[in-house]
């Protein structure tokens, strides 16, 4: 129904432009005649244009869907990496605390050893 209405509108436009052409010098046609082949060509070119536009839209939709899927995967990867990084940071802090405690114990042992050496030397 829609196509028929468009086709009729195109035919009326062609009839009107044909009438204008007669006024401006004429096309050699009688009043009321119009070029059916021209109307058919224009209609088929518009149909082809619509088909091309629909194909482009479908392609763009497919690309958008692919990008949406990629974004979801990247977000999941990002979440996993953030979790791993947080875990690694906690481990680093724990190792730092352990090292600090070991250094303090080591310094105490070194100080005790130095005191013993000094006592031994001065006795």
TrEMBL record:
Residues 1-21 form the signal peptide. Residues 21-48, 82-107 are annotated as: Disordered. The keyword Signal applies. Residues 87-101 have a biased composition (Basic and acidic residues). Keywords: Signal. This is Uncharacterized protein.
């Amino acid at each position: 129904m829609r196509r028929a209405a468009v086709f009729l509108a195109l035919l009326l436009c062609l009839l009107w432009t044909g009438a204008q052409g007669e006024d401006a010098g004429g096309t050699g046609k009688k009043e009321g005649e119009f070029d059916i082949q021209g109307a058919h060509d224009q209609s088929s070119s518009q149909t082809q244009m619509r088909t091309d536009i629909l194909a482009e839209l479908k392609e763009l939709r497919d690309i958008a869907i692919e990008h949406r899927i990629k974004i979801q995967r990247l977000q999941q990867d990002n979440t996993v990496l953030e979790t791993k990084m947080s875990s690694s940071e906690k481990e680093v802090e724990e190792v730092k605390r352990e090292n600090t405690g070991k250094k303090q114990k080591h310094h105490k042992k070194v100080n005790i050893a130095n005191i013993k050496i000094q006592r031994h030397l001065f006795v």
